[in-house]
Design goal:
- With about 160 residues, the chain is of the alpha/beta class.
- It is built from 5 helices and 5 strands.
- Strands 3-2-1-4-5 form a 5-stranded parallel sheet, with helices on both faces.
- α4 links the parallel β4 and β5.
- The N terminus is likely disordered.
Length: about 160
């Protein structure tokens, strides 16, 4: 795909990183789609806001959470490079996951597709999937792919 200047645009698949098992399923799906389409993967990690503000404790907490996020993203980046064939784009934000995700999508027009994993258990798909497929759906300006967290690697490979 080219714009008026002839520049090539890569399709960018965004995965929101958390500790859920379904995130790994979404990550594999997105990596396989990126590789198949000549696209690229991006990962967003949203940390909780620091609440303690006295004696610099809040800033220390903020720095520790950011360091943890960066470490987790770097660990996943190794797997992403192996699965997708490219180095991912990494984003770390602080705040409400849904709000930060929507802000990132507004700020980064290069992101083409949002890929989320859904919990297949009785509690429902998870708070982010529920919010984005419900009350916040109208604020999305990119397609959203929801991957069932119960999919196996073989099933993902078969559809990608």
């Amino acid at each position: 795909m080219s714009d008026e200047t002839g520049a090539h645009h890569q399709r960018v698949f965004l995965v929101v990183v958390d500790s859920s098992p379904e995130m790994k399923v979404a990550l594999r799906f997105a990596c396989r789609r990126a590789r198949a389409t000549g696209g690229r993967l991006a990962m967003l990690y949203v940390t909780e806001p620091a609440t303690a503000e006295w004696l610099g404790v809040g800033e220390i907490m903020r720095e520790e959470r950011r360091a943890e996020a960066e470490t987790r993203l770097q660990e996943l980046a190794v797997d992403v490079r192996e699965m997708s064939g490219d180095v991912p784009v990494l984003y770390v934000r602080e705040g409400d996951p849904a709000g930060e995700l929507l802000r990132l999508l507004e700020e980064e027009p290069t992101i083409s597709v949002l890929v989320l994993g859904a919990d297949a258990g009785p509690k429902g798909p998870g708070p982010l999937v529920a919010a984005l497929s419900g009350r916040l759906l109208g604020r999305l300006h990119v397609p959203m792919t929801i991957v069932p967290g119960s999919m196996t690697s073989a099933e993902i490979d078969a559809v990608t």
